[in-house]
Amino acid sequence: MTASPVSVLGLGMMGSALAAALLKAGHPVTVWNRSPAKTGPLVAQGALPAATPGDAVAASPLVVVCLVTNDAVQEVLGTLGDAVAGRTLVNLTNGTPAQARELSAWATGHRARYVDGGIMAVPQMIAGPHAYVFYSGDDQAYATHRATLAAFGGTTWTGTDPGRAALHDLALLTGMYGMVMGVMQAFALVRTEGISAEQFSELLVPWIGAMLGGAPEWGRAIDTGRHLTDVSSIAVNQAAFPNFLAAFREQGVSPELFEPFQAILDRAITEGHAADGLSRLAGLLTVER
Ligand code: FVH
Question: Domain holding 101: CATH number?
Fold first, then answer.
């Protein structure tokens, strides 16, 4: 059976990796990029270049979009109008749940099917064993094209609400950025005394891994609303935290990433949660919308 044609809009680092994976899986691939020079390497691998986004969309029933931001996606899709009718758009651009829902409504209004996605991989990981993508939106379109999308890596369906994939993507990346902030602060701190960051990472990696092992327990506490702890209370953390901010200042390291954490620990105490574990913070972070 011939593999079905796919068009890819956007040949940045990620879009190029996606197009290459589709070619490798045997699909006829049409590519479009705002700066045409980026089509060169893909054309050398067998892709067909499209002069306009409209030409690319006309070439395939499945159109994968991977641009820098949602604004860029809106700009490009806005030029297409009804040319998208009958097509399935799979948008793998980073965005918010609300943006995904808006694009889905736009696609429906133009008689296209919409699937949103969140890529859990860097370009070099695409088509490898550890890459996967969250998907949400039109379940029939997803079912039709799932085997094709598997060229990128694992496929994880998160539901028919188009915003669900972005929510999962952003939540996982939020955990990652929290880790990046802590790791960079730790490196900045040890470097003030001439300790090698690479050497220190040998202590940091197992420590963070061990601490992260507590996540399921925090999750259980958050789900059940039972935050009382005999391990590490908010009171003990709030009492110790000024030492961190003081040490950062003494050592010549900016406290700007960590001051907000002191603020929320202080609020937790003020609001009567001294005896609770850190799992209580998730609830305190929930605000009206
Ligand atoms: N790279 C990564 O590690 C992450 C992994 C997880 C997913 N992200 C998201 O993927 C989207 C694309 O990221 P990227 O790495 O491909 O980004 P760039 O290499 O910077 O390529 C950006 C492409 O967007 C095109 N573009 C920008 N503005 C416009 C516009 N106004 N109209 C049309 N196209 C536009 C750009 O075109 P050009 O500059 O080459 O002409 C590139 O094709 C992103 O959401 C990540 O968060 C990647």
Answer: 3.40.50.720
Q: How far apart are CA 25 and CA 47, in angstroms?
A: 12
Give the Cα separation of 86 and 24 in Å (integer).
26
Residue 133 and residue 243 in one domain: no
Please tell me the total number of residues recorded for the chain in this structure.
289
* Spatial distance between the Cα atoms of 200 and 217, rounded to a whole number of angstroms: 28
For the segment 99-122, what is each residue's pLDDT rounded down to a tens digit? 999 999 999 999 999 999 999 999
Q: Which atom of ligand 1 lies nearest, measured to the CA of 120?
A: 6
- 10 and 150 co-located in one domain: yes
Range of the domain at 105: 6-160
- In this structure, are 75 and 185 located in the same domain? no
Q: Is 1 a domain residue?
A: no
Compute the distance from residue 67 Cα to the ligand 1 centre, in Å. 4
Dist CA 205 CA 228 (whole Å)? 28
Ligand 1 contacts (CB < 6 A) are 10-15, 33-35, 38, 66-68, 72, 75-76, 93-94, 119, 122-123
Ligand 1 mean position, distance from CA 60 (Å): 21
pLDDT averaged over every residue in the chain: 97
Note the pLDDT tens digit of each residue in 22-48.
999 999 999 999 999 999 999 999 999
Q: Residue 22's closest CA among 103, 90, 107?
A: 90
If asked whether residues 48 and 133 sit together in one domain, one would say yes
The residue whose two tokens read 């860029």 is: 72
Q: What is the pTM of this model?
A: 0.95
